[in-house]
Design brief:
Layout lengths: L1 H22 L2 H4 L2 H14 L6 H25 L1 H7 L12 H23 L1 H21 L3 H19 L12 H21 L8 H25 L3 H27 L3 H23 L4 H8 L2 H8 L6
Helix pairs in contact: 3-4, 3-8, 3-12, 3-13, 4-6, 4-7, 4-8, 6-7, 7-8, 8-9, 9-10, 9-12, 10-11, 10-12, 11-12, 12-13, 12-14
Protein name: UbiA prenyltransferase
Organism: Halococcus thailandensis JCM 13552
GO molecular function: transferase activity, transferring alkyl or aryl (other than methyl) groups
């Protein structure tokens, strides 16, 4: 009898852990540090030194901020999810809505404090700005044109957060080509967010086309950066090769979604585009060196592996 009760408790604990993993979109969490690493790579590409401990701390902060954002997303969407996604942790009753709200706020605050503690006041300000954009998106702007741009801006700010790990220069001191890269990332994610807006119900073919346009813009951004910077042949091959992989991977998902825009095609396309951001980050990071690209790509393994167990979108 005692063994049966112990097994039941253990099963319940695993179920609760799985519910929280679904709440924070655990596969997606591994797409946040690559943004920060890209920021560090941009600093390194300009010949400036990067503090690796500070960069690591900022990567942790970005994970906390992302987790806070997804948690608050479900907190604010609880009523809609009860109708469209009843299997999610809050509408299914696995996690109380109030608990999710408190957890989301705590994660955002934790992200700001970790950035402040590991990389200083400037990093704390960047993280606070990112947390504010996340909260605005989740609570007010979602589903509006401003909301799509806000979600994209959050990713762009995540890249800029990584630039704070530079030991001598602020993000504003970076050259124009380097500052353009977070903008490209932001526009790409804004387009993907637009496609994801009604993924659980009906999605217009034009929304999928917008995401495809975002992919093409991102690839052109990599090529433009290569031409502008003129890196070594190895770096060119790495950047262009990764950009090609990004194009093929996203294209294989966006094709069916465009041909037949339904939840069972659009949802996977959204998930693919989110995870593929790691490859895009690596393509840009390759401009600073193959080592930077590999450091970014490492995060793709757990992201893709966990995406087989948990929903990404």
């Amino acid at each position: 009898m005692g063994g049966s009760e112990g097994t039941t408790r253990e099963s319940g604990s695993r179920g609760k852990l799985a519910a929280y993993a679904a709440l924070v979109r655990v596969p997606n969490l591994f797409s946040a540090p690559p943004d920060v690493l890209l920021g560090g790579a941009l600093v390194a590409a300009t010949g400036r030194a990067v503090s690796i401990p500070a960069l690591a701390g900022l990567a942790v902060a970005s994970v906390l901020l992302y987790a806070g954002g997804t948690t608050l997303n479900d907190y604010f969407d609880a009523v809609i999810d009860a109708r469209e996604r009843p299997e999610r942790p809050i509408p299914s009753g696995a996690i109380p809505r109030r608990t999710a709200g408190v957890l989301g706020a705590a994660l955002l605050l934790g992200g700001v404090l970790v950035a402040l503690g590991t990389a200083g006041p400037r990093a704390g300000l960047f993280a606070a700005a990112l947390a504010a954009v996340i909260a605005l998106y989740d609570g007010v702007l979602k589903g509006t044109p401003a909301g799509f741009l806000a979600m994209g801006s959050a990713r762009g700010l995540d890249v800029l957060l990584g630039t704070v790990a530079g030991t001598t220069a602020a993000a504003a001191a970076l050259p124009a080509w380097a500052l353009a890269i977070p903008v490209v990332v932001a526009l790409y994610i804004a387009a993907v967010t637009y496609m994801a807006d009604n993924e659980a119900t009906t999605t217009e073919r034009g929304a999928v086309a917008a995401a495809a346009a975002g992919v093409l813009l991102a690839v052109l951004g990599v090529l433009a950066a290569v031409v502008t910077l003129g890196p070594s042949l190895v770096r060119i091959v790495s950047a262009v090769g990764l950009a090609g992989g990004f194009l093929v991977w996203t294209g294989r998902a966006l094709g069916p979604a465009y041909a037949t825009p339904r939840p069972d095609t659009v949802g996977p396309a959204v998930g693919t585009c989110i995870l593929a951001l790691v490859v895009l980050d690596a393509a840009f990071a390759a401009l600073a060196g193959v080592g930077w690209a590999l450091a970014v790509l490492v995060f793709l393994l757990p992201a893709v592996g966990l995406s087989r167990l948990f929903n990404v979108s």
